[in-house]
Each structure stands twice: as structure tokens, then as C-alpha cells.
């Protein structure tokens, strides 16, 4: 037996016993580590609970900018703006629908920026040129398309109401005179001078009937007409701001807050 053990030891290289013992020890440690894998694993229910705590139900996820979504919303709001103009032209409801003319372009600016807003205005003009002719489409684009982009830019930058209303009034006055100039070219007659002449003749007749020794002049009538146009556009822009305040807040795209005295009158915060 001693010879057999000596022969067996002769086949084993030196240090193999130590190596085997080290392997057994490492295997034992790995088994010990594997025995605790349940403790190291995260409980799925706890993970779900932590995620639910981090993202509550009432939190709105960030809006992903997708070219498809931008294109769809631009096309939809462009068609909505064209439809509002078309309905108001054939079935006029007074100033009710007119207030909504620039709002689609302003909404697109608040959501997707300047380029999408200009695309909405241009596509609306193209749709109206197909449905009603190029003249009506140009009259819509100037001033209401440009006004919508301007309002969206002011609201996006948080400009006060006074500033956005002032710029909108300038665009509205320019749009009215552009419309008079365009129709004067198409009709071959100066419509502004014609309207001023008729108003002067009417006031002269009215003052004569009332016994007033006042002779209205063309310059005075023009000044009164320009002041009335400016006041009319200011009131229109004020109404547009009020409607946008009520509508766009509910759509998740709020505009700057009104002055304190307006908020007190309409009881809106």
C-alpha cells in the first residue's frame, strides 16, 4: 500500500493539492454567493411602487417632437382656419367667428414654433385660393395670417398684452388699407376717396338739417375715419386676447396673464 501511495504521489505534480483545495474553496464561495441571489435581486413590486411614486398619474409627460405630429397639427389647424373664414364669408355671424381668425396660427406658434406657424398661414391661404379664389385668400393672409404669427410670437416670448395689442393693431390697420388698395386696383376706382367723399356729403347734409354751422372737410373726415379704424382694431385685438386666454389655457398652451385690472373685471386668474 505504501508503494501504491508513493506511485500515486509521483503522478501528481507538486502543489496540485494546494490548487485543488483553492478550487474547492472558490467553488464553495461561489455557492455561498449564489445562495444569496434572492436577497440581492430587486423586488419587482418595490420597483413598480418606486416608479409609480416618481411618475404620478397627474404628471404630464414631455411632448415628443415628431415631424409627423407637427405636419398633422399644422394641416389640421390650417384647414380649421380656412373653414372658419369660409363659413364667416357665406354665413356671417357678425364678429363672433372673426375673433377666431388669427388663433389657429398663434396656437401652432405656441406649440411648434415660427416655421410651423408660417406654414399654417400659407397653407390656409392656398386652401382658400382653391375654394374662393386668390383674392379672398390674400385678404385672409393679410392681415389675419400675419397677425396670428405675430400674436403667437408675442405670447411665446411672454410679452404683455399692451405690446401684442399694439403690434396687432398696426398689422390690422395695414391690412385694412391693403384691402382697400387691392380692391381699388381690381375695381378701377379709388375706394378710400369714394368712401370719404360720401361720408363728407352725408355729414354736410346732416349738419344742414340740424342747423349746425359746421362744414365738414375731407381732411377732418379722413382723420375721424383713421381714428375709428385704430379704435376698432384695438377692440378687436382685445377680444382676441380674451378668447385666447379662455380657450388656449384649456388646451394646455396658456398665453401671458392679462393686466390686473382686466383680471379683476373678468374674474380670471
TrEMBL record:
<feature type="compositionally biased region" description="Polar residues">
    <location>
        <begin position="17"/>
        <end position="29"/>
    </location>
</feature>
<dbReference type="Pfam" id="PF09991">
    <property type="entry name" value="DUF2232"/>
</dbReference>
<keyword id="KW-0812">Transmembrane</keyword>
<feature type="transmembrane region" description="Helical">
    <location>
        <begin position="191"/>
        <end position="208"/>
    </location>
</feature>
<feature type="transmembrane region" description="Helical">
    <location>
        <begin position="122"/>
        <end position="143"/>
    </location>
</feature>
<feature type="transmembrane region" description="Helical">
    <location>
        <begin position="163"/>
        <end position="182"/>
    </location>
</feature>
<feature type="transmembrane region" description="Helical">
    <location>
        <begin position="93"/>
        <end position="110"/>
    </location>
</feature>
<feature type="region of interest" description="Disordered">
    <location>
        <begin position="1"/>
        <end position="59"/>
    </location>
</feature>
<feature type="transmembrane region" description="Helical">
    <location>
        <begin position="220"/>
        <end position="248"/>
    </location>
</feature>
<feature type="compositionally biased region" description="Polar residues">
    <location>
        <begin position="43"/>
        <end position="59"/>
    </location>
</feature>
<protein>
    <recommendedName>
        <fullName>DUF2232 domain-containing protein</fullName>
    </recommendedName>
</protein>
<keyword id="KW-1133">Transmembrane helix</keyword>
<dbReference type="InterPro" id="IPR018710">
    <property type="entry name" value="DUF2232"/>
</dbReference>
<keyword id="KW-0472">Membrane</keyword>
Amino acid at each position: 500500500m505504501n508503494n501504491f501511495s508513493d506511485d500515486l504521489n509521483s503522478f501528481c505534480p507538486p502543489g496540485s493539492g494546494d490548487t485543488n483545495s483553492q478550487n474547492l474553496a472558490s467553488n464553495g464561495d461561489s455557492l455561498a454567493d449564489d445562495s444569496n441571489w434572492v436577497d440581492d435581486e430587486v423586488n419587482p413590486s418595490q420597483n413598480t411602487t418606486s416608479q409609480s411614486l416618481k411618475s404620478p398619474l397627474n404628471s404630464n409627460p414631455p411632448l415628443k417632437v415628431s415631424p409627423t405630429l407637427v405636419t398633422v397639427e399644422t394641416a389640421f389647424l390650417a384647414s380649421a382656419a380656412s373653414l372658419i373664414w369660409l363659413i364667416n364669408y357665406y354665413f356671417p355671424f357678425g364678429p363672433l367667428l372673426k375673433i377666431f381668425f388669427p388663433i389657429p396660427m398663434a396656437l401652432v406658434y405656441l406649440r411648434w414654433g415660427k416655421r410651423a406657424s408660417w406654414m399654417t398661414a400659407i397653407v390656409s391661404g392656398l386652401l382658400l385660393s382653391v375654394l374662393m379664389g386668390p383674392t379672398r385668400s390674400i385678404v385672409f393672409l393679410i392681415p389675419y395670417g400675419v397677425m396670428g404669427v405675430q400674436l403667437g410670437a408675442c405670447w411665446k416670448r411672454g410679452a404683455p398684452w399692451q405690446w401684442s395689442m399694439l403690434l396687432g393693431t398696426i398689422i390690422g390697420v395695414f391690412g385694412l388699407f391693403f384691402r382697400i388698395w387691392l380692391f381699388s386696383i381690381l375695381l378701377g376706382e379709388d375706394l378710400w376717396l369714394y368712401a370719404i367723399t360720401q361720408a363728407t356729403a352725408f355729414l354736410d347734409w346732416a349738419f344742414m338739417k340740424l342747423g349746425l354751422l359746421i362744414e365738414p372737410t375731407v381732411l377732418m373726415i379722413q382723420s375721424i375715419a383713421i381714428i375709428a379704424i385704430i379704435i376698432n382694431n384695438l377692440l378687436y385685438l382685445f377680444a382676441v386676447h380674451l378668447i385666447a386666454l379662455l380657450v388656449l389655457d384649456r388646451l394646455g398652451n396658456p398665453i401671458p396673464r392679462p393686466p390686473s385690472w382686466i383680471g379683476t373685471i373678468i374674474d380670471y386668474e
